[in-house]
Design goal:
By secondary structure, the chain is mainly α. The protein has two domains: 56 residues, Arc Repressor Mutant, subunit A; 38 residues, no CATH class. The chain contains five helices and three strands. The protein has a three-stranded antiparallel sheet with strand order 1-3-2. Strand 2 and strand 3 form a beta hairpin. The longest helix has 14 residues. Keywords: Transcription, Transcription regulation. This is HTH domain-containing protein.
């Protein structure tokens, strides 16, 4: 498996990881990880955050195989749903059915 593909899969699964952990897991240098992040960020919403609690992150709501609504977006749709006309409710419900993140359990 290509190193960048492996890095992308790790980030998609964990959503956030530190550069030192990625370096160790992939067996590469800091410069290599940062260069790979730079390349991947051109095609995927991946970014770095400095400082305590920082690291490499994937944007909220983005999933490799599918994009989901963010929790606040889903909550707003649920709040607005009762005030819509019946035909609009059907459309809005179809949006929820397609893009709401599946509930665990």
């Amino acid at each position: 498996m290509d190193r960048r593909q492996k890095l992308l899969e790790v980030l998609m699964a964990r959503r956030q990881e530190t550069v030192p952990n990625l370096m160790q897991e992939l067996g590469v240098s800091r410069c290599t990880i940062l260069r790979d992040i730079d390349v991947l960020s051109c095609s995927y919403p991946i970014f770095t955050v400095r400082g305590n609690g920082g690291g490499v992150r994937v944007a909220d709501g983005y999933y490799l195989d599918r994009r989901y609504l963010k929790p606040d977006q889903e909550a707003l749709i649920h709040k607005l749903l009762p005030g819509l006309k019946p035909e609009e409710q059907v459309v809005m419900q179809s949006i929820l059915d397609s893009f709401a993140k599946p509930k665990a359990g």
